Amino acid sequence: MNNKMDDFFKKRLEEYTPAEDGWNVPSEELWDKAKPSFPKREKKPFFMWFSLAFLLIGIAASTWWFAGNEQHKETQALISNTSINLAEQSNEQETTKQEQSTKQALTQPIVSKEPKTPARKTTLDKTNKKTISKPVQSSKTKTNSGLTTASRPKIKSPLAKTKAVESNPVQTKQITSNINQIGFPKVSEANTPPTSKHQPSITSQSQHAAIGLATQQLFEIALLEPAALNNLIHNRAALRLAQEASPTMHVSPIIKPFEYGIAYSTYVGFKPYDEMNPTIIDGISSINAKNNKQYGLHVKTNRLYDNGLGFNSGLMYTVQNMDVDLGLAFEYQDGSSSTLRSSSSVNSDSLIIKFYDDADLKTGDLIEGSGTIRFAVSSVRLPIGLNYRLRLKQFEWYAGVGLTLGVQLIRLSEPNIYVYNQGVEVGAFDPEADQSFTFPLPEFAVYAGTGFKYHLNNQTNIGISLNLDKRLVLPRQYLRADFGVYKRI
Amino acid sequence: MEKIQHIIKKAVAGHEKEQRMLYDEYRTRWYMLSLRYAKNSSQADDIFQEGLVQIFRDLHQFDITRSAFTTWSCRVLVNAALKYLKKHNWVNTLSDQEESNYYADESETIYDKLATKELTMLVQQLPLGYRIVFNMSVIEGYTHKEIAKELGISEGTSKSQLSKARRTLKKQLENLLITNSHE
Questions:
Q1: Do B15 and A37 make contact, defined as CB atoms within 8 angstroms?
Q2: Among the CATH numbers 1.10.4160.10, 1.10.1740.10, 1.10.3720.10, 3.90.320.10, which is that of B1-88?
Q3: Residue B86 touches chain A, beta carbons under 8 Å
Q4: Which chain B residue has the Cα nearest residue A13?
Q5: Nearest by CB: B49 against A13, A19, A33
Q6: Which of A122, A242, A299, A358 could be a cystine partner for A112, CB 3.0 to 4.6 Å?
Q7: Phi-psi bin for B141: left (phi > 0), alpha (psi -120 to 50), beta?
């Protein structure tokens, strides 16, 4: 009897056909809950080796690229950013004269009108290129300005007699010098007269004598992610220690991002750091950033999908104050003032150098300058991108591409620069003119990068990455190597 | 056989597609087993989920030359069920189950009227100790020696529990049939 009943139960209870009402079918939710604990497909270590090889090749290639072409490429970039316009700043009468002079120059080869500059002849050929012959005589003649060295103050306001300058207009002549032909010595070499290879080839009526005011370069460096070894590979910036204190807020924690569902995280960070006097440009001019502090708010999101892909977006707002030591050099071109001008497409503001009336200068004299300018930069950036992450136990490899849209508002202020000829102060930035100006700079950049992380635990990881950024508004590219310890709170 | 072997191999390697195929093939069997050991569907869900995790975690240990996958997976699931029930303090209830005094006519005619779902519910209504021993012995085919070992009881207790389970089921069947006939 028992056997009969047992058989009956066994037979009936082992009918495993799914019922129409689903009473004997588990819900899909149960599968979803259990699935993260199932064995995971092991990714081939090929990707790890591939990315490592990519990293090494990238470092080698970029080192070669920066080392081999550094001067040329940076020079090109700088030319597009900043130039010194050695134009005489004068009144309308001067402008008229200038136009007349220009017309004359275009129609026939000329020798510089100025009788007091016999040492260096300036000619303009049919292609409107001026050439300057080497001086054969170094006699100096005073300008016709009414200013004298003895009458000017010795400290920060040496141009108190600007009106006197304006009341004594001089003839106008635009002379252009190209940085590629001129080259600019470091401040330490400022007292060394230019050699023949530094002779300028005057190329057009709008002159460009770049001084290497690589403002963007400075900003970019300042905006690097928290890192310790920025730009070390091409030795343009000093080793910098940076620290990020980022209170982290997760909307939802990242839980096994490669195993289940969608993870979403975000953080708001406050990122102060100091940058102590790194040399930004070397060999072209001397520009040192000092007292550089940046503060920022950075909201980042990264949606991670279970296939390893992620979509990141963010908003970065940073403010930065930076003093820049500036060294510049150019040749004096018969006039009483010069303009240091940012020549990007979005800005044409100028900082004006006034030469003292009693400066004993003649065309071709080497003018060297040094001083400081303060940059105050506010920027808003919107980076978006795709990334892929591969996690093998504690190791994580990631790669990403994306673009950044943004705008910077740059304010140049507190110029405090003096120019010299053979060690004698011959001019300065005009303190009476409004030498502070603000201009916006749009930003559009693309980036690609890869990196590794080693997760010490769920909250802390050590990471290293290599990123190549390419700016498209003010074209340039740069390499960024980051190393940091990251901790989620 | 080769097909299931291939699927299992892929599933062990972490291929989601094969894991899902395996699941789809056996889920009803596994879930019904969970239902039989549980008191209700909520408890069955818990047992099923834990069993499922255990099956896939231990999948690499499965040896097709020693047993069929069905047998192996159901054993794993039974162990998961026992573990779950043990965790929920069932042990003490095993030795002193109240004996049911229900008796029923076990004619095949009345049994045939009952569907699998109703029978499952009857099993679920058994006191815990009866239920476990009944399932292990009658459905899964464990011997009393194996049951005793698994549950940490004597073989005599196992036999006693089974006997009482049978009697209870008979009585419940009878009541169920009476109720059905009145309706």
A1: no
A2: 1.10.1740.10
A3: no
A4: B116
A5: A33
A6: A122
A7: left
